[in-house]
Amino acid sequence: MKFEDLLLEIDGFGKFQILILFILCLPRMNLPMHFLLHNFLAATPSHHCAIPHQEAFVNLTMEEVLLISIPREPDGTFKSCEMFSQPQFHLLLNSSLQPENNSIIQECQHGWVYDHSQFTSTISTQWDLVCEQRGLNQATATFFFIGVTMGAVVFGYLSDRFGRKAMLLLSLVCAVIFGMLSAASVSYSMLAVTRTLTGVALSGVSLIVLPLGMEWVDVEHRTFSGILTSMFWSVGNMLLAAVAYLVREWRWLLVAVTGPCLLSIVCLWWVPESARWLIANGKVKRAHRHLLRCARMNGRKDFAEDMPLIMYGQRIVLQWEHKKPGENYSYITLFRTPVLRKISLCSGTLWFGVAFSYYGMSMNLTGFGLNMYLSQFVFGFIEIPAKMIMYVLVNRVGRRQSQAWALILTGLCIGANIVIPKPFTPLRSAVAIMGKGFSEAAFTTAFLYTCELYPTVLRQNGMGYSSFMARLGGALAPLVFLLDEVWRSLPEVTYCGVAVCCGLVAFLLPETLHVRLPEGIEDIE
């Protein structure tokens, strides 16, 4: 008897599975609050050079002091990173005059003055991460995703070795510890280190939640459970907009988004270990105990009582010949056999493109003409109908076609906004929202698709490797914004090109629609 057959007999989508899925949705909902926190944590408000007080300024208004002290941009706004070496009093007579000599313009000498109307404080204002230090500000997101990248490798291996639930609990505890330490940072270096370690911890949550839920669900409801779990990512997206709107001080914002992890830790005690993993690792008694609990809760009490442990062990474990006692798998195993090697190379490329374009759009909240809080909320809201549409498409069209076209259309929407003029704000916003919907559809499908591509004995290693590639894309995405100094549209061209190329790679993967989850490498080959 295969595990899928056993699930059908004890009800593969009853009260037991629904309870597990909803509990696992709590940490899933908390993830985007950290993954997209950079938008608000490191927001850079309007700023200009600080002007030292002089006796000559006594009778001048602040506007007049700025006029004679700060050069202007072509659009008339004051420059953020430059000042006059000496006050230009002649500009009081005619403010339209331009300085005749650029040598009188210098970089800010006395720090900066920030507009605090929108943010009480951010890490940009805390440590002056502007102008020449702008790269460090963007690097904060990169440090976090480097941590997530490392965590994908660590937790992918550990969860296949020591179990899904134990590693999920460990990652949540570490996320609380390092999240609170981030809020208490006394220097930029401390913040960079603690945010990196927070990324390592949250990578485990991102990696384990979906497979743990899906391994308890039958084939028929696998897509629904994957979409349902990912819906709560979108809910978390919208909640982040609300929390950031209410909490404008960066330290308390970190506390506010880290606190919910404590609730997830408490609720996790009601979630059992994956029976698939237990059987694959020879822990038959524990698997039997959890399956009995599942059968009773789903109203299959008679079946549970008629299933002796010894008979169960013979029927299931002897069929589970894919993993012999003492046999261990590693990331190298993903590239040892031909078909598995092709799947791993293509899925890694796909995940890089999905994450690179998703975070490229998600971290550009002010680039489409909307208020950043409204952009965050709308970008989260549009993901819900996108996922509902994908629920239909992946079951009708298939995983492969849905995955490929969702990512290709994401790239085309990004490309369209390159050619649409800036004054057409409503049109640019509409195209950006469509692109965000396609981007999330691609991400949702990638999670579901990848879980179905890898066998049980390698599933977490496969997810770990895929997550590693995704977080590599996520780590590079914020740094690409710095390319606007070379050419203003170069970041968008990069996001567009990568999304389209990686979408085409998805056509090389096998279709998994209505196919049972593979248990061993033999099922793949």
Describe this protein's structure.
This protein is mostly helical. The protein is built from 23 helices and 4 strands. It has a two-stranded antiparallel ribbon with strand order 1-4. It has a two-stranded antiparallel ribbon with strand order 2-3. Helix 2 packs antiparallel against helix 11, helix 8 (188-214) runs antiparallel to helix 9 (222-246) and helix 8 packs antiparallel against helix 21 (459-480).
Features:
mainly alpha, Growth Hormone, Chain: A, 3 domains, two-stranded antiparallel sheet, 23 helices, 4 strands, elongated
Walk me through the topology.
Layout (H helix, E strand, L loop, with lengths): L2 H7 L5 H21 L2 H4 L5 E3 L12 H8 L12 E3 L20 E3 L4 E3 L8 H5 L6 H29 L1 H20 L4 H27 L7 H25 L3 H9 L1 H8 L7 H6 L3 H14 L3 H5 L3 H9 L20 H25 L9 H10 L1 H14 L2 H21 L5 H29 L5 H22 L9 H16 L15 H4 L1
Antiparallel strand pairs: 1-4, 2-3
Number of domain modules: 3
Helix content: 55-70%
- Topology order in helix (H) and strand (E) letters: HHHEHEEEHHHHHHHHHHHHHHHHHHH
Which second-level CATH architecture of the largest domain applies?
Up-down Bundle
Low-confidence parts, pLDDT < 50 over ≥5 residues? 309-326
